[in-house]
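step: validate -> pass
step: tokenize input -> pass
step: predict -> running
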Amino acid sequence: MKTSLSHLPEAKQDALKTVTEIVIARVPAEMIILFGSYARGEWVEDYQEYRNARKNSSEGATCF
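step: predict -> pass
step: emit ->
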């Protein structure tokens, strides 16, 4: 089991740290376990989703 996020890009690490802070602020969690493709280091950026989000943001819509 990996115990760090160093295998992920810095932007993904920052996003996960933010989510972790939110969870810990609301729930007395001792551990948060990341699983799936992010945990295995096999995640793939969804460029179509990214492109649509950028298009929506330029139109004034909420991205996510």
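step: describe -> The two ends are 30 Å apart (CA to CA).
step: cleanup -> pass
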